[in-house]
YiiD C-terminal domain-containing protein
Amino acid sequence: MPETAPAPAADPLARLASHYASMPPVAAMDIRVDHYDGRCLRVTAPLERHVNDKGCAFGGSLASLMTLGGWGLVSLQVEAAGLDADIYVADSQIGYLRPLFADLTVEAEAGPHADWDAFMDMLRARGRARIHVVAHARLPEGGAATEFAGRYVAILRR
């Protein structure tokens, strides 16, 4: 008898966490979907999985977590709009401001001039749309260790 895929989780955050866990390199990062308020997505990962030779967070891990946080944010927004689309990161820029000697905590949200309504209207009308997302890896004492700006593209599945 063939194996059946598990039923998708009813909660969008559980589905996002499950999707992250379904990709072996991402699963190895031990990412946790920590919080989502409809505007900002917070994801975390333990420092011990991402420590470099200096004892602080590895830059590649920070870049990956911020990219995944932005991807998750766009995915949640598209799902909430009742659409089914593939999401891709088109390009990104990262600034490393200070070393992070604690667990990685990333918050992703729409960029300052991004408009979710316009993004969804374009996605419905043309089958594809793009939006700018910003993310920060937070220091425990406040402020940003790393800043990220990325452009994400959504393409409707037909």
Observations:
- The mean pLDDT is 93.
